[in-house]
Amino acid sequence: MSSRIARSDGVICAAVDGEVVALNIEKGVCYGLDAIGSEVWDLIAEPRSIADICQTLRSRYRVEQAVCESDVLALIADLRDEGLAMLLPAPPEPSAAL
Prior knowledge:
This protein is α+β, with helices and mostly antiparallel strands. It has helices at 35-43, 50-60, 65-81; strands spanning 4-7, 11-16, 19-24, 29-33, 48-49, 85-88. It is globular.
């Protein structure tokens, strides 16, 4: 859950009626994201941890943590598979001063 996700380069997107339409230039294929998928898309405009995405969604919606995590992980897998997003390593932990 500490891994971060960000939009991939080479993706063009637009909001249409409250939902996102994204075009993967490399594949030449257009994808539509529903309202919640569009919120996640907005959240990953900058790299963000999966845990942070879930926390944000849970603050907006009444959803159990396990359900939210499962749904977000499934969406992230789809976005990665379609080349729309990429996983980034978690930032290094700050080292304790000696």
